[in-house]
Amino acid sequence: MSTPDALPVRTTPSAVDPGLDPDWIRRTVETALDEDLGPAPGRDVTTQATIPPSATGTADLVARAAGTVAGLVVVAETLRQTAARLGLPTPDVTFHTQDGDAVVPGQVLARLTGRTQVLLVAERTVLNLASRASGVATATAAFTRELAGTGAQVLDTRKTTPGLRALDKYAVRAGGGTNKRMGLYDVAMVKDNHVVAAGSIAAAITAVRTAFPDVLVQVEADTTAQALEALDAGADFLLLDNMPTDVLADTVAAVRDRQGDDGVPAHVELEATGNLTVERAREVAFTGVDYLSVGALTHSAPILDLALDLR
């Protein structure tokens, strides 16, 4: 085990960006602690029975696997709320990594010092949130590495865990990815069911622009013909769904050929989605799309194994 003097020190878990709202962290930690301890202040019958409130200790937050870390921004708030529930002082935290850092097995991410009860009661909430976020960041980083030099970016989707969307999307950014729409409210996406309900792609786009003229309109296309139809109808950008690579390349070429025509933007943003894997990422990027959107970043990423070890 590394000694404290041998570890790099980050005085704060500075995030890749400031986008994880402190109020969201507070509410989420409160809900997680309620689940674990029961309604506030709750109790941990094992820890409180076996460890006196006056006992102090030091614990290391450690990576057990290689990956990209995220979610360290929840640690301090989890300790603060846990200490308040127990009526004990808040432990001190020294960070040796920050969100977005690549880590290796055995690496100490943070060192926590204070009342042992607080450390152990907070343990699972810290690990649940940080392990999940780090898993998403690790999956995203794999795509980011594959796309390096292609000009394409990896995007997330709305396929997130209910209640944890902000954390999931924050973790995507920590892994070098880009957020797409945050929800149903900020970008319109016309999909096949909307076209069926509205009667046509053009009718659906017109309806959205009439009701919500302030939002961008993306249209999902399964074929080259649908993509060009959406372009003619005034779509701002296109989602090319589940196309084989050769069809995708042909569609991109057809759209690029129309760029700058009357009513068509000089550059139409194109997004590939469906059946996208790390192994296939570069070949898809080299079709000329701007983005690859990957639901698996948030709906299927395994956690990054983290542990909290008392010293």
Automatic annotation (TrEMBL):
One Gene Ontology term, aspect cellular component: cytoplasm
Gene Ontology annotations of biological process type: NAD+ biosynthetic process; quinolinate catabolic process
Keyword Transferase: yes
Region ranges (Disordered): 1-22
Keyword tags: Glycosyltransferase, Pyridine nucleotide biosynthesis, Transferase
GO molecular function list: nicotinate-nucleotide diphosphorylase (carboxylating) activity
Name this polypeptide is given: Nicotinate-nucleotide pyrophosphorylase [carboxylating]
Superkingdom, natural source: Bacteria
Organism: Isoptericola sediminis
